[in-house]
Amino acid sequence: MENFKAGYVGIVGRPNVGKSTLINNFLRFKLSAISPKPQTTRHKIIGILTGENYQVIFLDTPGILEKARYELHRIMVKRAFEAIEEADLVLHLTEPVLPPDDIDLRIIEEIKKRNKRAILAINKIDTIRREEVLPVIDHYSKLHDYLEIVPISALKLINTDELLELIIKYIPEGEPFYPPDIVTDKPERFFVSELIREKVFYLYGEEIPYSTAVLVEEFIEKSPHHGGKDYIRAIIYVERDSQKAIILGKGGRAIKKLGTIARKEIEALLGRPVYLELWVKVKPRWRKDIRILSELGY
Length: 298
Description:
- With about 300 residues, the chain is an alpha/beta fold.
- The protein has helices at about 20-25, 70-85, 100-115, 135-145, 160-170, 190-205, 240-250, 255-270, 290-295, and strands at about 5-10, 45-50, 55-60, 90-95, 120, 150, 215-220, 230-240, 275-280.
- It has 2 domains: about 5-170, P-loop containing nucleotide triphosphate hydrolases (Rossmann fold, 3-Layer(aba) Sandwich), CATH 3.40.50; about 190-295, GMP Synthetase, Chain A, domain 3.
- Strands 2-3-1-4-5-6 form a 6-stranded mixed β-sheet, with helices on both faces. It has a 3-stranded mixed β-sheet with strand order 7-8-9.
- Helix 6 (about 190-205) packs antiparallel against helix 8 (about 255-270).
- It is globular and about 55 Å long.
């Protein structure tokens, strides 16, 4: 295909810097779970954006942590660095704050070590005065020879179209990797589990979401036993009995609210009615057990 651009773009940055918001806006599809709390994304997720003369394969990654407290954290950091290795182009996402913290400096080191071409996007410029971003641009330009440095707001869609044009400019020429109607390589049940986990982040207190994993155990399309609705049975795993009690809530009210909110969004995603069944089970220390992490898809 003549003059067609196709390439992998790894989006990396610290937790809660806006990676998932940016990729969801690029794709106009809710690829990644988002919440105001950091570390919402745990997987390396492929999002595919195909235009008339380009195909960008975005690698959305977990936020890079300064210190991995659990085996889960170690896996998350590994996924992020894998994306740098696999990418044709790295999109380093940061915030308009000086000086750069150790995480941003480590990302720059990893980009240099792998000799990767990179664009820096300074996100959340809607939170500062325009003149405040100039020193940030100047500082980062001295730390690394970025192809481009672009101030953006992923939330307010400021300069995001310009950023996408630059991404397309710098990916290599080549044949598309995926059919034009494919948005991701992940199955529906993956997004269902992510939507449920996202709602846990919104509805529960500080530590509960980080101690929670969601596994879709059963997914039957147009189940005859449930009035032709899709039947979805999902298990919410926590580490302690006290956390299970919080997820359930008094008289089961909290989990009922979670199920109602999650079901509506799952139905919007799938475009069909859903019968959602949620269960809560305790798996002690699951974040530290590599065998259990593997069972849960990490």
